[in-house]
Amino acid sequence: MNVTPALMLAAGFIALLAGVLGVVSWRRPNAPHLARMAGGAAWLSLLFVLGLWIARWIEAGHLPIFGTFESALSIAAAVLLIPTLFRFLDRIPASATPGACLVAAAVLFHGRLYDPTPYALTISERSWVVDIHAIVAWFAFGMLAVNAGYAAWLLLRKGNPGPARPLTGTLTAGFLLHSAMLATGSLYKFLLFGVAWSFDPIETLGFAAWCAYGTLLHMHLFAKWDGRKLAGWCLTIFVLLVVSYRGIVWFPVWSTYHIFDMDMRIHLTGSEQYEEGERVD
Amino acid sequence: MLDKTLFAVRRFRQDIWLWLGSWKLSIVLIVLAVLYYLLLAIWAASSPPHVVRNIASLMPFWLLYLLLLVNTGTCLWRRLAILKHDLSPRSAFCDRPPEWTVPVGPEMVEIDLKRAGYKARQDGPDTGLTGSRGRWSALGTYLFHGSFFLIATAFLLTLAGRNETTFQVAEGEIFRSGPEFVVRRITPEFWQDQLLFTQLEADLGWEDGSRSITRINKPVMTGPASFLRLSGFGYVPRYELLDKQGQILDSAWVKMNLFPPGLRDWFQVEGYPHRFYLTVIPDPEEQDGRLVTRSLNLNEPVIDLEVYRGHLSLGTASLSANQGFDFEGLTIRIAEIRYWGEFTLVRDPGVLPLFAGFALGLIGLMLRLPGKRSEVVFRLAVEGEPARILGWGEMPAGLEEDL
């Protein structure tokens, strides 16, 4: 089965429905049927996106890491999977799911605008280090999306203040995963280019987001930021995280190695000449 | 007057010490780091990468890194006593009245404590049910923040000692200016007819008889801080220059920049005034009366040749293997084309400490995941007092709901 932009759009709408129903249920705690409908839509969205993700893996012949289109699927799958997984482990309440669904919908709507052609992986992406880096990145984004989703619940819900532990727990776990993502990215950069850091915009944006989340953790630990105040900042910094993950495609292709859309660039052999644009005759 | 001055100096030293180790300074510095790096990212959208790197090496950045390290070091030093306490055995950690209590149901079981994130155990009939959480959390904080120093040292070592040399070695050629190796074979593979490598690797033979494969993303370690990687690729034709009688006057391999197809490069033969310009069509087929390439793989390649003497063009030709081009009493032919690999030898004393620092930092963060250290013991209801949990260390958020 070919994964088409139309299918991604459909997946995005289901996730959007789950998210909107969930948010409305926060404001109407006396209408439990809304929460049930939201939960059902979230499950449907998760299964649909996972199905598309597996189909894309088969279609492309590799882990869906290459290009904005298929990485959107992977990120959306992680964002929808994490709250479900942690609900089974009784670590994150269901209240985090609607926010995560809205994030997944946005990622899918954005990703479907890009070239859906499945390309073979270039040599620079054929490595288990890259696979680990990509998987860690997806889960880092997913964990922090759940953190943002839970923060949104704390801010928007009616009723008594909710428990803060899922907020700080997802924040800490997300920070760990984000750190691991930066570390594995640096490792692979060294393997591929012989330098561990080169101020590529993907690195600087990722590091800025890492510092921002680090600041938030310090404010929680030392200034006792908690509850709605912490939640507001979690949401704010999540915007920076989204830019660092998905906004890289807005940069010129010569400025970063991290644009993997083949219609936007051709990968050469990994020589530093790619920085200077075309080879000189 | 002297007393006042000494008091002021001592007071200043204490204030500076407090200020350098304060978490508020940490916040200011980390927020500055966020702003600095956002600025770099914005610059990267309009400036070439080397300009961005130059901006990142300006004094404000160095000052920020230095202050962050000083602040981190001072914080860690000031909190050593807390670290010692937080790492002490349970008996010492709980060797004072409990810091908090939480009323619980009369039948507290292990699973309730586990749900709250504790490692629960029955310590014996006298001690009863106990729980421990974040036992090594304080160590995690130190490992994570301590890794900054290792990473900073690594970057300094890289700045001071990194060295990169690039050289081209053709298939069958022995490289002797450094680690000695022979390139047995270079294997490129392309996706369809696109300039898109799906494989590029070099099979190397070493002095001791061993072999290794290096790929563009898989360097070979040649020393404690030395890495050899395949970083480029091209064609190396072997020319033969013949006289009128067909005797070979000269023959050599010439490493040229002829890849990707369409690139034009030239060579000269020593002792002759001529220049030979080449373009390679690696996998030729005829389309609309002209030769184009089907793919990027070498498959009976054709060489487009143009010969010059000074500014005078002596003619052009499209030559298959061993086809010659005659000019001014001579014949030039391209007998063979092989691959050359561009190899980069990187000596970087900072890279291993850098990744050790990353590993240390990640281990520290994992130790921090359960939260700050907390020790609890369950006490049965006695004489009108309800059953309760007695706690030392940080009371985890949401504990009452969990229990």
UniProtKB/TrEMBL annotation, chain A:
Gene Ontology molecular functions: heme binding
Start and end residues of each Cytochrome c assembly protein domain: 68-250
GO biological process, one term: cytochrome complex assembly
Keyword Protein transport: no
Keyword GTP-binding listed: no
Record keywords, A-Z: Membrane, Transmembrane, Transmembrane helix
Pfam families: Cytochrom_C_asm (PF01578)
Transmembrane segments: 6-26, 38-58, 64-82, 94-114, 134-156, 176-199, 205-223, 230-254
Protein name from the UniProt record: Cytochrome c biogenesis protein CcsA
Upper classification of the organism: Bacteria, Pseudomonadati, Acidobacteriota, Candidatus Polarisedimenticolia, Candidatus Polarisedimenticolales
Automatic annotation (TrEMBL), chain B:
Stated name of the protein: Cytochrome c biogenesis protein ResB
Transmembrane regions: 21-43, 55-77, 142-161
GO biological process, alphabetically ordered: cytochrome complex assembly
InterPro entries for the chain: ResB-like_domain
Membrane topology label: Multi-pass membrane protein
Signal peptide: none
Native organism: Candidatus Polarisedimenticola svalbardensis
Domain ResB-like, first and last residues per copy: 61-380
Keyword Transmembrane in record: yes
Subcellular location: Membrane
Keywords: Cytochrome c-type biogenesis, Membrane, Transmembrane, Transmembrane helix
One GO CC term on file: membrane
